[in-house]
Write a structure and sequence with these properties.
- By secondary structure, the chain is of the alpha+beta class.
- The chain has a single domain, classed as 2,3-Dihydroxybiphenyl 1,2-Dioxygenase, domain 1.
- The protein contains five helices and 16 strands.
- The strands form two sheets. An eight-stranded mixed beta sheet has the order 2-3-4-1-13-16-15-14. An eight-stranded mixed beta sheet has the order 6-7-8-5-9-12-11-10, covered by helices on one side.
- This is Glyoxalase family protein.
- InterPro entries: cNMP-bd_dom (IPR000595), Extradiol_RC_dioxygenase (IPR052537), Glyas_Bleomycin-R_OHBP_Dase (IPR029068), Glyas_Fos-R_dOase_dom (IPR004360), VOC_core (IPR037523).
């Protein structure tokens, strides 16, 4: 069993309109835009990162906004809901705030004894705010949400699978332990993790497979401290039979990817070097940053990428 994985690093999803996406995560949810860069494989498309003040691993939601993307089709083989952690007693504030902002799909739920506020993002993305006791991570307060209510980061993710067996075994191998099962949902956590350390599996045997599109989670990334830990994880996964990519430099972390038995794309990302490697922490996300191989496109991209601010 692996000991290097500490919980989530980031969650990356697909969107349509970049400005709408930016407004939702910064103005509505109060997160900080910690980086604006572009997709390594499609440089005419943004890659936007939102999180806490520093973009701490376990807090960062990222998006590829493709202007004309079709909506995804929910189903099995995907992350169904991304779970954010908020302080106990704050859901009333968030219900009022999201109602005022016209957010769709608001609903109240309880899972594993915790209160949740469920809602939809602009592209139909499924989210939940969970009241989590004892989460002392500082939330970002620069966009008008007080420290008493601010999102602390991820609590985890909830996956929808046709069969939970093989993915459960994989999570166990990755260092996750099964906590409990309730109403057909399995809950796993990393002991001593980074607080963004829950994974839930909902089993839907007869469900159609999901279709990737706007509002879909593209992949979920798990955090390791450094490149040495990542190489150890990569070797262990490969020795177990998983087809794992080589290490890829993503400027703000190094990444490896592999497809899980249930169909979800997993990434293992390093906590180093972080988002301050090319701009001061006080000014994260303010300027367009380009991967080295796309630096020659700056003039074109600055003219053609949609301005993010209203």
């Amino acid at each position: 069993m692996l000991k290097e994985i500490k919980g989530l690093h980031h969650v990356t999803s697909m969107a349509g309109d970049a400005r709408t996406n930016n407004h939702f995560f910064t103005k509505t949810l109060g997160l900080r835009r910690v980086k604006q860069t572009v997709n390594f494989d499609a440089p005419d498309v943004y890659h936007l990162y939102y999180g806490d003040e520093a973009g701490t691993p376990g807090s960062v939601m990222t998006y590829f906004p493709f202007p004309h993307i079709a909506r995804g089709r929910p189903g099995a083989g995907e992350v169904g809901t991304t779970l954010f952690s908020v302080p106990e007693g704050s859901l009333g504030y968030w219900r009022e705030r999201l109602t005022k902002e016209g957010v769709a799909g608001l609903g109240e739920a309880e899972a594993f004894g915790e209160k949740r506020l469920t809602f939809k993002g602009p592209d139909g993305d499924a989210f939940a705010l969970t009241e989590v006791a004892g989460d002392e991570r500082p939330g970002w307060t620069g966009n008008g949400v007080s420290g008493d209510h601010a999102i602390r980061g991820f609590q985890g993710v909830s996956m929808r699978l046709r069969d939970a067996g093989a993915t459960s075994e994989l999570l166990n191998f990755m260092g996750y332990e099964k906590l409990e099962e309730k109403n057909g949902v399995l809950r796993f956590a990393v002991p001593g993790g980074n607080k963004a350390d829950l994974v839930e599996i909902e089993t839907l045997p007869g469900a159609d497979m999901a279709r990737l599109g706007g509002g879909s989670v593209h992949h979920v990334a798990f955090a390791v401290e450094d490149r040495a830990a990542q190489l150890a994880v990569r070797k262990a996964l490969a020795d177990t039979g998983y087809q794992v990519t080589p290490v890829i430099d993503r400027d703000y972390f190094w990444a490896i990817y592999f497809r899980t038995p249930g169909g979800v794309l997993f990434e293992v990302a390093t906590n180093e070097p972080g988002f301050a490697r090319d701009e001061d922490t006080a000014h994260l996300g303010e300027a367009l940053k380009l991967p080295r191989q796309h630096a020659h496109l700056r003039s074109y991209l600055e003219q053609h990428l949609q301005p993010l601010e209203d």
